[in-house]
Amino acid sequence: MITMKEIIRDPHDTLRLKAQPVELPLNDEDRKTLHDMMDYLKRSQDDKIAEQQQLRPGVGIAAPQINISKQMIALFIKDEEGNVLLEEVLINPKIIAHSSELAYLSTGEGCLSVDEQIPGYVPRYRKVTVRSYTMDGEMVKHRFEGFEAIVAQHEIDHLNGVMFYDHINQEDPFKKVDNAVEL
Q1: For the chain, what are the domain ranges?
Q2: pTM for this model (two decimals)
Q3: Among 20, 43, 88, 125, which is most exposed with the fewest C-beta within 10 angstroms?
Q4: Is 111 labelled as part of a ligand binding site?
């Protein structure tokens, strides 16, 4: 079971490494890791469990954040009524297409591996197509848009040793981004 204790914090070296591709078919250890990553996200979004276990809520997590330098991410996003919008694990994900239009969150981004608030807009593609593999080894393509696209890109960045704040304009963190939609 993953808790905040297992989530490594910036500036841990693993967060800046390029993660290794996962061998398919999945071995039992990688399968358990993906299950545990998704389980963390679900528990972290349950207010009662999150408070009991002192979990910081998350909508995505990448294996490097638990000190496993492999290309695996989990995404779990619910709407305001609690309906599940996205529940996916992505193995060896790669962005294969994206919109020219950008988007950013009006509140900036946060990260389970970054304890402090780092203010600023994080420009990302508004739409992305991601090719990845399922736990059964099947190649799939996902089209993400808006918030889901931002979360997917944030987690894929972790697989490339990139942190969200690397995208923030250092001279003017809240500078309006050309050709971008504020979400």
Answers
A1: 13-182
A2: 0.97
A3: 20
A4: yes
Q: What are 7-20's pLDDT values in tens digits? A: 999 999 999 999 99
SS3 109: coil
- Candidate CATH numbers 3.90.45.10, 3.40.50.300, 3.20.20.70, 3.90.580.10; the one for domain 13-182: 3.90.45.10
Catalytic residue among 88, 109, 148, 155: 155
Exposure letters 24-56 (e unless 16+ CB within 10 A, then b): bebeeebeebbeebbebbebbbeeeeeeeeebe
Distance CA 172, CA 156 (A): 25
Q: List the Cα angle 169/174/179 in 5-degree steps.
A: 80
Distance of CA 153 to CAs 4, 147, 156, Å? 22, 10, 5
Residue positions counted in the chain: 183
12 marked among binding-site residues: no
